[in-house]
Amino acid sequence: MCLSIPSLTSQAIILAKLALRCSFCKVIERRAFAKLDGLLGRFPAVVLLGPRQVGKTTLAKVCAAGRDGIYLDLESQRDLSKLADPEHYLSQREDRLVILDEIQQVPGLFPSLRGLIDEGRERGLRSGRFLLLGSASLELIEQSSETLAGRIAYLEMQPLDALEVGPEALQKLWWRGGFPDSFLAASDEASSEYRDFLIRSYLERDVRLHGVRLAPAKLRNLWTMLAHCQGGLTNTAALSRNLEIDVRSVQAHLELLENLFFLRRLRPWHRSTGKRMVKSPRLYIRDSGLLHELLGIGSLEALAGHPVVGGSWEGFVIENLLACVPPRTEASFYRSSGGAEVDLVLTFRDGKTWAVEIKRGLSPALSAGFYSALDDLKPAKSFVVYGGNERYPLKPEVEAIPLNELQRELLGL
Length: 413
Hints:
Rossmann fold, six-stranded mixed β-sheet, five-stranded parallel β-sheet
């Protein structure tokens, strides 16, 4: 007999909205609902990745409500004890979606999941069996892909983005960042307090769980230095010298911060153009609100006069665009030693590229270096994301475009 697990119903979507309303006193629909529903309909196991406090648990509980599911928090001893004999416990619930939160804490479960998935397939249970949540991407992907190859899909859930909150809230989102409790806080002061709590939680708990031995004060110094470098090229030697730790330790910390969704290292364009290219990645604190908190910037007005304002806007736009790109899109930047430069190059599965320059002002002016880069890259489309609300051509081959508009265009691919 073939047992089927229903997809998310309209009732579940209503529950999702109510959950967000109860948690944040505002309704915000997340695009991840539909994406996750589609993956659960096709794969027996799905991994939902993302930083802590981004809304993964809320989304998971909505899925549980819509699919007669079971939610287990593997950081809870009570829930963990239920899996003392995982094969027995989970086999008794094979017709229900089982959600395992912080799955990377119990890597020994993966072989059991593989056996249960393979046994279930023989009885027609081919999708919607397990939803696995995690906040450490590389570790979880390595653990799951080795054991569950061909049985599992991955979805990254990111903070709120500009398309989800709407253009009227764009400046607020840039200032406060996309963590829901920060964005929807009752005041800027409450938002700042939340972001400070989140940073301390990373410093004192998450990072140390991964074997980091640096004192929290030194770790915070590293993070603050990275914030000052927003949008700049990686210089591990300078970070090592200023922190008085060895280069290998700095490199290990950068890899960990990237793994925890805190840091993005945007790689340089790597295809041959016949020119000498910059080889170091650019560094970005991924959430603009955490960036501003690390730098002690107290208001949107103070941000406007701060040296990091350009790098902050650039990183904010990049994260919002990458939240909307099609699967397997490669993101990079282009910079030659001769001064040709583009802030973001998107390379799609079919090999076509889009070039994206990022300007904060209302009247974007482009440099000769940008047009030189277009001659090198020969992109299918070229855009300048700017702070205005209208879409219009700057040159025959270049369009000025608001952030929301380019997000919609990416989602339509």
